[in-house]
Amino acid sequence: MLDFSILIPYFRDFVQALGLTLALSLSGFAISSVLAALLLPARMSSVAILRRLTWLYVEVLRNIPVLLVLYVVFFALPQIGIKTESWVAAIVALSFNSTAYLVEIYRGGLNSIPQGRYEAAAALNLNSFTLWTRILLPEALRTAYPAIGNQLVACVLGSSLAVLIGAGELTGLAYMVGASTFRYFETFLTVAIVYIVIVQVINFCWGKLGAQIIARNTSRRL
Amino acid sequence: MPTVESIQDAGVLRVATLTGDAPWVSVGADGDQEGFDVDLAHALAEKLGVEVEFTTVDGPGRVASLQSKKVDLTIGEFSTTPERDEVIDFSNDYILNPGQYMVVADSGIQTSEDLNDESMVACIQQGGTSTDLVPADIPNVGTLFLPSTDDCLEALKSGQAHAMTQNPFYYLPLMDKDPGAFKILDGTFGTNHIAVGLQEGSTELAAFVNDFLVEYQKAGKIDATFEKWFGFEMPTEARP
Amino acid sequence: MTSVIDYTELFLTAVVYTIALSVMSIIGGTLVGVVFGFLSARRLEAPHWFRAARVFIDIYVRIFRSVPPLVLMFLLYFGVSAAMNLSISMTAAVVLALTLFVGAYQSENIRAGVESVPRGQAEASAALGLGIFSRMRYVEARPTFAVALPSMVGQWVVTIKDTSLASGIGVVEATTIALTVRQATGETWLVFLVLGVTYFLINRGVALLGSVLEKRISRSTSRAQSRAALV
């Protein structure tokens, strides 16, 4: 018989674990958004060595499991003196991974801008600062926006791997509660539902935010 | 419910065991399970006249695979606890296993009281009995829960944790292999009673397993395999 | 100490198992994606029951894109079997979890592909009296796959990477064996390097296969288009 009441004593733990899940995924996403923006000029650079190095980074990180990145950060890096706690290791691994995807997403956004924009800007005598901040970046952002949102969701899902290095986020807590109550079904089903809710909320907010950004950009240009 | 007869009809004994918990059980270079508990499972199967089919699980999987009837028995450094006893059955104990802390030799940690501090981290195998025993013994220690004992060893070596929370039987072969690297602290944090896990209600099979365990002990086989895997004579306090 | 070399055969066997898990999950995810993607696409002149199917598929997609595959594996392996008295083997739990998870993404990829087919073609096929399934087969399939294939291949790579999560429930695949070897030999860096290179090569291989498929499809699409233009 299903009995969800066994989870009640763990309510506070679940709230805490939810906080940690959000902290891990949001910081992983935030850090990788910035890192990817920093790597983007190198990825699109005319200097071959920069381009190749960033290409290599992106290819490697996109083709090996996040779990392996996590293990390297948590178990291998300490051997060369870089020691981190579980939650830090989780953020670092998530950021490294997510950066690789975001660089490509940003690049896709910029590449989608038609050549005509540049020519029109030249004809209007726009300086390059105005060109980038007013025209190119907003347009690239609009194209890339949904994919960036998907990457945020990927960070939330990816944070669940932290259970395997012992961070007590949602999946980790579920694992512990399951092991001490032997009620795996109730526990993991509950946690699955929590993840579904988180992701729906994120999708909703991301959509709203996007609509606002696009509205603002459009009105400013008019 | 598996019975002696149903197992003999099937020709296989389905046993859940751990992945990385040498010398109790681990995967050898040939890909087969090996270790103290693996020998015990093979001897039991021999008495039944069947083959063993191992399923490797993590700590919590030892209970879950019995609950879900995926296996007939669990043999893998499996401690009896009252909570587990509510959902599955146990044979008699075949070995007693004191919980002890192991630290890195030059860490400066001398007693378990040194560990009882927020700046210290004890690594605990998820779903193992140390989950409750360690916080009861040293409530202030920080805890790191990892899926397998081997993960904890790795965490200890890399400095992610200051202490392991296993038993001397796990530690001693390691200390043999790597003399001077580790140190076991004096005192224990409780004794684990290691037994064979069975599906709830397998009374008849439990009786068979208990008979087998008596023979295994009387014939001195348990001592021989203990020495083979752990590298020292089985201490008297380990006998149930 | 044992040397890493002693474990070569064991590791290769585990890699084969990783590949087997991947192939089964990729087939599962792609099938779910193709069926659900074609059924849920918004298009002109579709039968009414498609709307009901779309509601159901939308819910499926929303749910399974939101649950971490590791949680799905735990739920299926520990949970469902204990609660429902239904024995799901470890391998089945992994393949099913990945099929459901990746299937949701593939379904979206395919749907976007179908919806990119120009409206005129729908009108034309309706005028020709083609049934919906013939329309999928003869009109929509080729342009859909031409559009969706790159993102589908992306999901194949995700599937392969996610089989590593099977180590979390104790399946003896490449990652689990790598951890065993790490423990037995103490060669953390070397073992992780080998494991990383292994996944990298498998995934690059799949990406390569994907680009060959893409070329084929786009060639046959352009051939079909030029034939159509001639007619």
UniProtKB/TrEMBL annotation, chain C:
Gene3D superfamilies: MetI-like (1.10.3720.10). One of its GO terms (biological process) is amino acid transport. PROSITE patterns: ABC_TM1. The chain crosses the membrane at residues 15-39, 59-80, 86-105, 189-213. One of its GO terms (cellular component) is ATP-binding cassette (ABC) transporter complex. It is a multi-pass membrane protein. One of its GO terms (molecular function) is transmembrane transporter activity. Its main location: membrane. It comes from the Bacteria. SUPFAM superfamilies: MetI-like (SSF161098). It is found in: Cell membrane. Keywords: Amino-acid transport, Cell membrane, Membrane, Transmembrane, Transmembrane helix, Transport. Residues 15-210 form the ABC transmembrane type-1 domain. This is Amino acid ABC transporter permease. InterPro entries: AA_ABC_transptr_permease_3TM, ArtM/GltK/GlnP/TcyL/YhdX-like, MetI-like, MetI-like_sf. Belongs to the binding-protein-dependent transport system permease family.
